[in-house]
Every structure is written in C-alpha cells, then in structure tokens.
C-alpha cells in the first residue's frame, strides 16, 4: 500500500493475544498495540484530529505555531505533524520527560522548553500549562491544542479507534485503558458501550494521581496520572478504577518483554497488570487492553537496571517477587490497591 505522507499511516494498529499470562484462569487478554502508529503512540490519533479541526475552522493557519504541554507522546505526535505540514512546534516538558522523546522531537525540528520548577505539591502539569499560556499569548498565530480539554481528543477515539477495535474484536467483556488526559478512555468507552452495553470499563491510573479524586503525590511512571481531573474524563463511562503502583506497572512491562516479546511502555504495563488482576478475579473474561505506547521511550530508563536502582524500584520489585512471570501473576491476584467501583469513589467526593 502506498501513502501520500506519514500522517496517512496513522491507525489500523494490531491486536495481539497474550500467551503466557491468561491461560490458567480461562480468561483471554488481548492487547491493542498503539506503538505501531508512526510517532509511536495512541496520541497520533487525537493530535491529527485536533490539528485538522483547527485548520478547518481557522484557529491554525499555514505557517502557524503549535504549542502544547506534554509528558512525551503528544509532543512526538505534534512534532511529526509539524514536520509534515510545515508548522513550528514548541513542546513544553518537565524533567521527567524521557530523553528519547526529547531526541525524537528535536530530530523532527520541534523546539523543547523544559519547566524545572514544580508547583507546591511537587507536580509539573500546572506549571507546564502556565508556560504554554505565556507562549501562546506572545507568539502571533500560535495554537494550543489543549489535549486535556479539547473535545476532538475523545472524538478521535470514539469515531476511529473504537470502531477499529470493534472490527477486530466484535465481542468482549472488559475494556482496560489508562486515564492519561481522559481522551482515549472516554472516546473508546463512549462508542464501545453503545455497541456492547455490558462491557465493564476499567480505568487504570498511577498511585499518586489525583485524576479520580485521590490525594496527589509524586510517582515514577510516565504516560498516566494527573494532579487534577481532566476535562475530557467522563466519569459516567467508567465502571471501576484500578490504581497501579510504580513497581507493579514497570515490572509488568519488563516481564512482558522477556516472556511475550512484547515491548510496551510504562502505562501499558500498568494496564496489563490491572487486566491480570481482573482475569483472576473474574475467570473466563475476554479482556481488551489498550497499550498506549511502546518501550522505545523508556528503554534507557525503566528497562535499565541502573535507572531502577537509582529510583529505588529494583529492590521493591524484587521484594514483591514481581520480577518473574509466576510472581507477577501472583502479585496481580493481590495488588497493592484493589480496584474500586466508580460509584464508591463518587460517594466519597
């Protein structure tokens, strides 16, 4: 198949069945691998949708500037679009941004601004977004996609990703997706629940994230978690919330590489860990996990033993027995944080 440009290659990502982690419980775990998108993640889809919509209604004009706050993947997607479409792109990041991401966007000609001062809670999302506002105000013709609030973010997944998934897997019991900005979780659940109303939506987030109303504190995983609830997160579409610890999510990514040849990122590891728990708690389930990105962003970090030791995670993973396939399965049976029904969370807020 011949495409006119790289943006036309976005989508049609494969679904892979896990072989080693689900057979003993009669459950089936299927993983949709969004790393097969050209910039390497699920964020290619909403990035293109948001930019196309802005071009259509005049918010972004030829030769304009795209400015966005990103922890990694949205920055890569926008850098790719900028290179193909001739836009200046400025990505505002913080010190947690993977080095590989910074190199990727620079190779595509994007500019990077690093915000090094956190807010009073130790978070960087607020300061990053404030820097975006300053840049947009000072640059003529600048456009801020604002992925956390832009309705074109979940729309991309409701209209495209979900329909793609249903074409490949027309019947299943559980959708597992990370919260992130709320975009793909909300968009996927919106369309899938229309087609399969009995599907249970499990939202996965980091221990330490405040997206579902929990107290915020720092965490190591990238690609999920926020200091507040994003505007694109539609709580009515979520059935259960599973908070996954750094050691659980990162250990899962590492074990998957060795046992399945599956190279997924940290948030995908967290999602698959939650799926492993659900597979054992509800035997016989057919579970779909959306893996937002691959391992390339993290290969020198969470896949690197020295990085793990420096973060204090190597000892935690080993002590919990999460560094082997059998240990991971056992650990998922009794996770550090049990999933909670959304109704219970809402009653507390």
- How far apart are the first and last residues' alpha carbons, in Å? 51 Å
Strand order across the largest sheet:
1-2-10-7-8-9-11
Q: What does the overall shape look like?
A: globular
Mean pLDDT reading:
94
Residue ranges: pLDDT <50 for 5 or more in a row? Answer: none
- Structural class by secondary-structure content: alpha/beta
Structure description:
There is one protein chain. With about 350 residues, this protein is α/β, with parallel strands linked by helices. It has two domains: about 5-35 and about 150-335, Rossmann fold (3-Layer(aba) Sandwich), CATH 3.40.50; about 45-145, Rossmann fold. Helix content is about 40%, strand content about 15%. It has twelve helices and eleven strands. The protein has helices at about 45-55, 75-85, 100-105, 125-140, 150-170, 185-195, 245-260, 265-280, 305-310, 315-320, 325-335, 340-349, and strands at about 15, 30-35, 65-70, 90-95, 110-115, 140-145, 175-180, 200-205, 240-245, 285-290, 340. Strands 1-2-10-7-8-9-11 form a seven-stranded mixed β-sheet, sandwiched between helices. The protein has a four-stranded parallel β-sheet with strand order 5-4-3-6, with helices on both faces. Strand 4, helix 3 and strand 5 (about 110-115) form a beta-alpha-beta unit. Helix 7 (about 245-260) packs across helix 10 (about 315-320). It starts with 14 loop residues before the first strand and ends with a helix. The model has no long low-confidence stretch (mean pLDDT about 95).
């Amino acid at each position: 198949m011949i495409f006119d440009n790289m943006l036309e290659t976005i989508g049609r990502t494969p679904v892979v069945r896990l072989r080693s982690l689900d057979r003993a419980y009669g459950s089936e775990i299927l993983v949709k691998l969004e790393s097969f998108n050209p910039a390497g993640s699920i964020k290619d889809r909403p990035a293109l949708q948001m930019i196309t919509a802005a071009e259509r209604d005049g918010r972004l004009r030829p030769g304009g500037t795209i400015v966005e706050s990103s922890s990694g993947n949205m920055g890569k997607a926008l850098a790719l679009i900028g290179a193909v479409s001739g836009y200046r792109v400025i990505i505002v990041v913080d010190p947690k941004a993977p080095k590989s991401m910074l190199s990727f966007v620079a190779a595509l000609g994007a500019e990077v601004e690093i915000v090094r001062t956190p807010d009073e809670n130790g978070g960087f999302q607020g300061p990053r977004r404030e820097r975006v506002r300053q840049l947009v105000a000072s640059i003529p013709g600048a456009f801020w996609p604002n992925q956390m609030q832009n309705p074109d973010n979940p729309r991309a997944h409701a209209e495209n990703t979900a329909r793609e998934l249903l074409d490949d897997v027309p019947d299943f019991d559980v959708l597992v997706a990370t919260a992130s900005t709320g975009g793909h979780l909300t968009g996927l659940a919106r369309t899938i629940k229309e087609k399969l109303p009995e599907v249970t939506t499990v939202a996965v987030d980091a221990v330490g994230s405040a997206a579902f109303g929990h107290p915020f504190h720092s965490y190591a995983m990238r690609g999920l978690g926020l200091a507040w609830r994003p505007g694109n997160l539609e709580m009515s579409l979520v059935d259960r919330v599973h908070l996954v610890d750094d050691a659980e999510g990162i250990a899962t990514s590492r074990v998957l590489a060795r046992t399945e040849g599956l190279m997924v990122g940290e948030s995908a590891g967290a999602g698959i860990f939650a799926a492993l728990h659900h597979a054992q708690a509800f035997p016989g389930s057919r579970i779909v996990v959306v893996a937002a990105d691959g391992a390339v962003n993290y290969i020198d970090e969470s896949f690197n033993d020295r990085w793990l030791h420096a973060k204090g995670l190597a000892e935690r993973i080993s002590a919990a027995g999460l560094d082997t396939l059998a240990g991971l399965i056992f650990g998922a049976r009794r996770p550090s944080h049990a999933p909670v029904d959304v109704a219970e969370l809402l009653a507390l807020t």
